[in-house]
Structures are given as C-alpha cells and as structure tokens.
Design goal:
- The chain is mostly helical.
- It has 2 domains: about 110 residues, no CATH class; about 260 residues, no CATH class.
- The chain contains 10 helices and 5 strands; from the N terminus they run E-E-E-H-H-H-H-H-H-H-H-H-H-E-E.
- It has a 3-stranded antiparallel β-sheet, with no helix packed on it. A two-stranded antiparallel sheet has the order 4-5.
- Helix 8 runs parallel beside helix 10 and helix 9 packs antiparallel against helix 10.
- The chain is elongated.
Length: about 400
C-alpha cells in the first residue's frame, strides 16, 4: 500500500471573531504511535502527551508539569507547586531558599525565637501565596482556603495539645512499650487522618474541583496548615522566651529545620499524595490503564507507612543529627514519589480528541494548536494556572 504523506488540518473551527468559512491552516498532522490519533507534528503528542520521536509514553525525561525537568528531579517548588510555570516559580524558589538561610543565620546569632517563627511560617506562607497566584480555588477562595489551611490549622492546634499532654503523662510513667505504640503508631495515623479531613470535605461537596492537581493542592494546603499550628505549639516556649538565648546554634538550627521544614514537607507530600490519587480515581475513566503507583491503595500505604516510620524513628533514635539525616532522606524519596504520581496523573488521556485553534503555551510561550498537551514542549494544560489557561488567539 502506498504510504500517504503528512496530512494537514483543513477546518477544525473558526477563530474568535471570524464569520467567514475560510479554512484554518495549521501544522502537518502525524499519527501518534501510542494513542493512534492524528495530532499536530511536534516533539509530543498533543492528545496523550507521548514523546513522538521515541514513541515513549512514559517520557521520564520531561516532567509533564514542567518539561524542562526530568521526572526524577529533586525540586520542592515544581513538585508541590506544579501549577507554576518555570519562570513564575523563580520568586518562590528564591523565597524558599531565603527562608532556609534566614533560619540558619538567626540560629547562628542565638536569635532562636525569630528563627523558630521563620522556620514554621516559610512554607505555609509561600503556599498561601501560591493558592492566590494560580487561583486553583476558582470563584470560592474563602471556602477552599477555609476548608484546607484554616481547618488544618485548627485541627493541628487541638491535636498538638491533646497528643502533647498524653505523651507527657506517658513519659512520667516510664512505660516505653505503651509510649512506642502511642507515639510511633497511633499519633502519626491520627494526624494523617486529620490532615485529610478538609480535602475530603471538598471532594464530597465540591465535585466540580475534579482535576488531580486540585486534589494535590488541597491536600498539601491542609497539611501545611496542620503543620503550622502543631509546630507553633511545639516551639511556643522558645518563641515566648528571651530574644537572645543560650544553647548550641547547630542543635537549634537542626531542631528548627526538622520541626518547621522537614515535617511540613513530609506532611504536605503524604497528604497531597493521597488526595491526588483520590481525585485521579474520579477523573480517570480508564483505571485499568493506570500504573500502580498512582492508585489509591498504593498512595494510602505509602502515606501512612511514611508517617508511621517517621514516628517510630523519632521515638527510638535519640541522636538529633541521625534523626535529621533519616528524615531528610525520607523527605527526598517522598518528593520523588509524589512527582511520579503527578506525572502519571497528567498523562491520563483525555476522553475526547480535539485540535483547537492556535494559542500561546504558558510554559514555552510558543504559538501551538490548543490541545491537552503542548505539541512543542509537552507541558500539560492541566498544570497551567487556572486563571492563565490557554485561550484561542488569532494570527497577527
């Protein structure tokens, strides 16, 4: 059979403002080796996101939320704040780095109270700014922020006081066996369940927030609110103490980095992992084609398993530096797993195949046909901020 050359789009609709029947010209069409749809020629399939030159459906070299990074890449910002394009993420990266440096510098100057405030505030404040920057809440900002960060903070405050009091009484009795079960298993599981409360409310009563990245964002926001309140309760004696205090700057820096940064990152990752898988399960109608890492049982097992492991390590490891190293390794591994789940969630194929008018990609800024993925860079449209989603534009 004679092989046909590349086809061209003749008419997929009219541009905004057009009234005539002039055909819409576009790039040549090719057949995607994965989904077998006719899609605009480029490096990526605009329908399923596969890498066309290599026919790779996993495309591990191009993270679906930020294709200039591979999937196996350690980045807090592009992982937990995936709606931010690369250029708009730079101020957040700078602020996060500055916050970490400020904690270390204040601890070195024996300003432990300001260092504690900076440590517990940096991530929640950045995430609150992120929520408003990308408008993931659409037209219900107070409901979303209240059901996630505010509710998480209230639950975190109550939980920290109740759990702290119970742990103090157990310490006085010297019952190590009961203390291990309570501190290493019961407390982490209860905390994880409470961090899921706000997002589950939105999942049940606001089903129009249906994208997997909505679930990730709500879960991370709830966890950061919870972590803020519980960490503030933990370090409150230091905050209300003298401005310049005695003690080892190194130990204080490690302790504050653990309580304010590592705990927040772990909580945001585990909660966001579960909520992303939950939202994806509702969003994806072809669940049999999904990899096991992004399923609900896997997400729950990883999230609660990590929380229990961290609780057990904190209980049985007396050395602060060793505990910090183990926590750091767990945080990095968890962030990589969350990136994999985000990547898989964004590569879920659309139900309908459409090749829309040309519009500017928010990631690479090229004029490309509007599709689920950018044919040029492979960025998923679902990862763009909701107030900046692609809109049709005419030729100049």
């Amino acid at each position: 059979m004679k092989k046909r050359g590349p086809e061209r789009r003749k008419s997929v609709g009219r541009r905004a403002g057009e009234t005539g029947a002039r055909p819409l010209e576009g790039p040549p069409l090719v057949t995607c080796p994965h989904c077998e749809h006719l899609v605009p020629a480029g490096d990526f399939c605009g329908h399923c996101g596969a890498h066309l030159p290599t026919a790779s459906t996993r495309r591990r070299h191009a993270f679906a939320a930020m294709p200039n990074e591979p999937v196996a890449h350690l980045s807090i910002i592009s992982t937990l704040l995936p709606h931010l394009p690369h250029r708009r993420g730079r101020p957040f990266r700078t602020a996060l780095l500055a916050g970490g440096v400020a904690v270390m510098a204040l601890a070195a100057l024996h300003l432990f109270a300001p260092a504690a405030i900076a440590a517990v505030l940096v991530l929640p404040v950045l995430y609150l700014i992120y929520l408003y920057e990308v408008e993931v809440y659409e037209n219900e900002p107070w409901l979303v922020v209240g059901a996630t960060m505010a509710a998480g903070a209230v639950l975190g405050f109550v939980f920290a006081n109740l759990a702290g009091g119970a742990l103090s009484r157990l310490a006085l009795t010297g019952d190590r066996a009961t203390g291990f079960v309570f501190a290493g298993i019961a407390v982490p599981i209860a905390a994880q369940l409470l961090m899921l409360a706000g997002p589950l409310f939105l999942y049940t009563y606001r089903s129009r927030f249906r994208e997997p990245l909505d679930g990730l964002t709500f879960g991370a926001a709830s966890a950061l609110g919870f972590s803020l309140a519980s960490s503030l309760t933990l370090v409150w004696p230091s905050i209300t103490g003298p401005l310049i205090a005695a003690g080892s700057p190194f130990e204080w820096a490690v302790r504050l980095a653990r309580a304010g940064l590592l705990v927040s990152l772990i909580n945001a990752s585990t909660t966001g992992l579960v909520t992303a898988a939950l939202w994806l399960n509702r969003y994806d109608r072809r669940r049999s084609h999904r990899e096991w890492q992004s399923t609900i049982p896997a997400a729950i097992a990883i999230a609660f398993g990590v929380q229990v492991v961290v609780g057990v390590i904190e209980f049985i490891v007396p050395d602060l530096a060793v505990d910090f190293v183990i926590m750091s390794a767990a945080t990095l591994a968890l962030l990589l797993y969350v990136r994999l789940v985000i990547h898989q969630a964004l590569l879920v194929e659309g139900v309908e195949h459409e090749v829309g008018p040309d519009s500017r990609c928010p990631e690479c800024h090229r004029m490309v046909p509007t599709m689920v993925f950018c044919p040029a860079c492979g960025a998923a449209r679902a990862a763009a901020s909701k107030q900046g989603r692609l809109k049709p534009t005419g030729h100049a």
